[in-house]
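User: We ran a pulldown and think these components assemble together. Before we commit to crystallization trials, I'd like a predicted model of the whole complex to look at. Sequences follow.
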Amino acid sequence: MDGAGCAHHATCSALLSQGRSRSLRRPPDPRGSTLKAIATAYNRGHHRLAVILAGWTFLLIIAGALVTSNDAGLSVPDWPTSFGSLYKIPKLVGGVKFEHTHRMIAQVAGLLTIILAIWTWRVEKRRWMRVLGFAALGTVIAQGILGGLTVRFFLPPPISSAHAALAQTFFCIAVAMALFTGRKWVEEQPRVEFDQRRPSLFTLTLLSIFVLYVQLILGAMFRHHGLSWWPHVVHAVVVAAVLAWTSIRALTVYPQIEAVRRPAILTLSLVIAQLGLGFTAFLTRVSWGRDAVQPELPMVLATVAHVAVGALLLAITVILAIQVWRHVPIAFEERVPQAQRDPSAA
Amino acid sequence: MLAVYRTDGDVRGTAGTTTSKKGDIMNKKTGWTKITISALALCALLILAACNKKEETPASTPAAETPAASAPAATPIDPATVATINGTVKFDGTAPKASKIDMSQDPGCKGTNEAENELVTGGDLANVFVYVKDGLGNRTFDVPKDPVVLDQQGCRYHPHVLGVMAGQTVQIKNDDPTTHNIHPTPKDNREWNESQPPSSPAIEKSFAREEIMLPVKCNQHPWMKMYINVVKNPFYAVTGKDGKYEIKGLPPGDYTIAFVQEKLGEEDQKVTVAAKETKTVDQGFKAAAE
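Assistant: Here's a predicted model for the assembly, 636 residues in total across the polymer chains.
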């Protein structure tokens, strides 16, 4: 392979900044190159709100997991009201403690998302960020409707599972917004190294996200009594293998790029933790807790931790994919007709 | 001569066209506006559909779930010839220890509570639903006007297993100082879920279709579970703590008697009773395989 780096640095910068293409016609500069990201002002307050929303969403996912694990999904039988009221807080005992707390946290998440979407629209120069802000708002609205439908239709597994999957999708959007509004993303000149391996690291990160989504849906279907436990357990092997492949590739080939190395280490660590938590959840729920007369604390703790770490793992993998997209673009050979390769034809 | 059939199935029932040119900002904006409006309209429809569900479902009065008023008149039974079937249901093997229930998450739940899914006292098995499963042919029976009562007291259901005829009223009371929700999860009947605050009037419901071991639970208190058995004839009973049951007023004939336990499954027996005969039909259940 001949040549190295971008033929026209300015062109590459423009392509990167516009986000249109990551496919570059020339092989990489072995020394690495730095490209300037789009010029946009860092807004501390805006970024902090995005971080708060991401953290709050994580809390919301834990609260939702507690509802399912405590079999409290229908303890408040009505929606959008709670025991006939939109604002009164009922006595937080029994299953109501979990279900209504989940609803209150969700309402705050909705409010934060509205504020973030409007703020993003007003301060952001990046059009796609403004769109992302409203995509987050649309997702949180859809999520609220799914939550309501699952109550109104008595927890049908497909709706309850869609509610669980969309929750983590929203969490990933919130985390991505926090990343995109961060000082590092906005102000740093990203170090870029072109990826010539196949499959590319970016492809691997996309594959990782895909297998995690499948796993998320299988797990949710199991938790909501729509599927047996074994598809989730069998697919865990696939997820572990794909995520390990992705993380190890990132760590061995691009250890010098901090923005890639950090999420790769986290991904690998969380995979190991998640396998342990999954095994514990299996023991406490399927094996030991099969005949339990009520949700037992070890089962609740193990399962909720498994859901929480699963959400973190998906979010970290999305961050890894984004950072790989930014720092390790795919390089491919120029394929042009022979006639055009001939300088005399030009 | 009694023939024994075993059925190992789990009976718990878990039940304008717009052309858009590239660069035409107005058209693009119009397109996005249409998409946004369509999405919002869809959301609104979904919400509306969800909110209207309550109105679409039949009113939860006993009459609403009662079989059609044009049901045929009950087939007469000669009281002078009726027979009785009684007996005891035993548990074969080491009696399982009842699991303690932790009710600390709600201070309104007083006292102690134990699981009732396998209630064995001295080998006698309680809470077994016994009913005439087959043999009554095309006979029809009047639906009793008196309701059967299901009480919530001490954050447990009384009784744990209930028999009721299809269309008969089930009166649900709350004698606890805390809110319960009653949530049947049927396979063949309509599912519903209602909360019942302390000191509130009894909820009256009925079930239109036959369904054995229809689970009922309280999502406020996840340990609260009971089973309603909906049958089309009045020949049923539930074993007491002594494992005994009695079915009276049965016309002479050949029947299949079913014994159903929520965890152990169903055992059937063929039995023939003559006029005025009292026949003892005992049944044993073996411990469920681990």
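The first strand of chain A starts at residue 33 and ends at 34. That may be worth checking against your pulldown data before setting up trials.

User: Thanks, that helps.
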